[in-house]
């Protein structure tokens, strides 16, 4: 087992070596710790203690992923964070599992200390079709699901005994974990669009509509249901597939778009009221309170600490509202 202890300035180097390259923002005095077991050439199991941070994997970084690009399956063992990938926003809480792929841009934000158990492996080891793997990314895996409980318990035990296993045994144990992960991904298949049902397609349509109309202040749950010719009750049922409500999803997408704009120097001179309006908030105080609840700081505070150059990793309104 290898141990890494690192500061905020060293975080990007450690992440690039152990996980995937990323751009990180941390608070002064940041400290992190990671214990790592190598299970094979492209397989590793780690237990990490992270401080509050923002980590971005840009489109340029994702484009450089190798042909056998890496996957990261994380179990949040303590704390909370928000993850964005493949046009999906996930609020991750303790016990939740989440799959991420290196070949897609992503963003992870945590305002508190977090602990994770992470399995890193080559995509080719997962016995699923490529489309199924991508659709399984950024899908919340409930800690109460039986398959998830099996996988979580197995990985925790594997981390404990890995040093006592031979190299072939570690490799076999890692592959067994990946097979269990495939079972978990099949268990959440109802949220993945397929040819044998319309629910997933309708959900994708509504999610896409939300992301494309964030600036519309009239877009709420009832209006979303009306535009897709279905009842409010049916709308709630569809969003249960991804572990949230339509109202929470709409609010999260609006705040995520605002967070991205506040992190981008291209919007550095844009006033807070205009940014709020650009993502559908007509009242500045409502926007500020919602942003504070989700990210643990005010929009102005976020801008001061996270402003960076470069293109935003998620869609934001192409035109800001008039002054």
UniProtKB/TrEMBL annotation:
UniProt keyword annotations, A-Z: DNA-binding, Transcription, Transcription regulation
Pfam name, any one: AraC_binding_2
Answer whether the UniProt record assigns the keyword Transcription regulation to this protein: yes
- Record domain HTH araC/xylS-type: where: 204-305
What superkingdom does the record give? Bacteria
Q: Which InterPro entries match?
A: AraC-bd_2, AraC_XylS_family_regulators, Homeodomain-like_sf, HTH_AraC, HTH_AraC-typ_CS
Task: State what protein this is by name.
Answer: Helix-turn-helix domain-containing protein
Source organism per entry reads: Pseudonocardia alaniniphila
